[in-house]
Amino acid sequence: MRIAVLTSSRADYSIYLPLLKKIKQEPNFSLKIIAFGTHLSKLHGYTLNAIYEDGFDVYKAIKTPFKNNAPADISNAIGKTIIEFASFWKSTQNEIDLIVCLGDRYEMFAAITANSPFNIPVAHLYGGDTTLGAFDNAFRHAITCMSTYHFTSLESSAKRVAQLINTTENVHCVGSLSIDSIRETTILTNDEFKEKFGIELQNPILVSFHPETIAYEKNEFYVNELIAVLSTFEQQIIITMPNADTMGDIIRKAFVDFSRGRKNIYIVESLGTVGYYSCLEHCKFVIGNSSSGIAEAASFGKYVINLGDRQKGRESGKNVIHCVVQRNEILNSVLKIKSLPVLNRDNIYGDGNSADRIIRILKTIS
């Protein structure tokens, strides 16, 4: 079976990785990686190179529009990405048996929308999740409705998918591939991390904060509230840069401006999978609104202060403290962590065997 895997960013690629390795190993599967979106953006680290460095070929790199992230820019990018992929699907429809896509990004929505008239079967990873604080929620549900096969992270998500498509057929709860990645990753030592990233880890606070895309006009206020809290900390802080969402540039600029002249603040564009997990392993706790805080941090026994509504509606474990984006509330959450017990590493999102489950299911449809 010829399997085309769509990856639009460093984020989805890092989640895919365990599955990509297993597809590549299967003699009856032909892996075709299609890279687009911010993979081809120098501003976001040109992460296309990371795919090659991991030993994969890229079947097609599609340069899709990416300039600014104002609402009109994103709308234009969706339309132009649909046009780019319409041409691609037309030229390759007889060379692909199954499309695999992941998540809820608008770029992914555009690529799958363009496929609809060509009717190449689609397998969607992680439909049924709910993030009420992001317009991505609608994109995720739309991708679900355009897909044939569904792999979910939780049983509750599988039930929601079944409600959306009016059947339980081809809906499979497999757990999150992110947990597979954690199990397979060799965590860097402090010395190895310093050699790779030039940062000597000192039990840092890890910050991963992205725009909220529903009430996007509040993002400038939100990032300033977060920065007001971070400015009171003397310990090391590592900040990963935000996704290419509406108002992302404002958050990016605010972090860069904040870091100037502060020796305890480190800005990193992309840590990659190994770097990010290593930072999770060695950090004190996490502040932000990334899905990684909800799904992955528990596997490292780390508390997470989840800010705002970006992840609202998504199930979380006992390690997650939900907090409004207001400086006093954030500070109170930080103080709360100090009195909480040490966590185990149990994770509701999986046991590290998701890729194997997906492969077994794919073999039944090949």
What does it look like?
- This protein is of the alpha/beta class and 366 residues long.
- It folds into 2 domains: 2-175 and 351-365, 3-Layer(aba) Sandwich (Rossmann fold), CATH 3.40.50.2000; 190-338, Glycogen Phosphorylase B (Rossmann fold), CATH 3.40.50.
- It has 14 helices and 13 strands.
- It has helices at residues 10-25, 48-53, 71-92, 106-115, 136-145, 155-165, 177-184, 190-197, 219-230, 248-259, 272-282, 291-295, 327-338, 354-365, and strands at 2-7, 30-35, 60-61, 98-102, 122-125, 149-152, 171-173, 205-208, 237-240, 265-268, 285-288, 304-307, 320-323.
- Strands 3-2-1-4-5-6-7 form a 7-stranded parallel sheet, with helices on both faces. The chain has a 6-stranded parallel sheet with strand order 10-9-8-11-12-13, with helices on one face.
- The chain is globular and about 60 Å long.
- It starts with a strand and ends with a helix.
- The model has no long low-confidence stretch (mean pLDDT 93).
Overview in brief:
42% of the residues lie in helices and 15% in strands. The chain contains 14 helices and 13 strands.
Give the helices and strands, then pairings.
Blueprint: E1 2-7, H1 10-25, E2 30-35, H2 48-53, E3 60-61, H3 71-92, E4 98-102, H4 106-115, E5 122-125, H5 136-145, E6 149-152, H6 155-165, E7 171-173, H7 177-184, H8 190-197, E8 205-208, H9 219-230, E9 237-240, H10 248-259, E10 265-268, H11 272-282, E11 285-288, H12 291-295, E12 304-307, E13 320-323, H13 327-338, H14 354-365
Parallel strand pairs: 1-2, 1-4, 2-3, 4-5, 5-6, 6-7, 8-9, 8-11, 9-10, 11-12, 12-13
Helix pairs in contact: 1-7, 1-14, 3-4, 4-5, 8-11, 9-10, 9-13
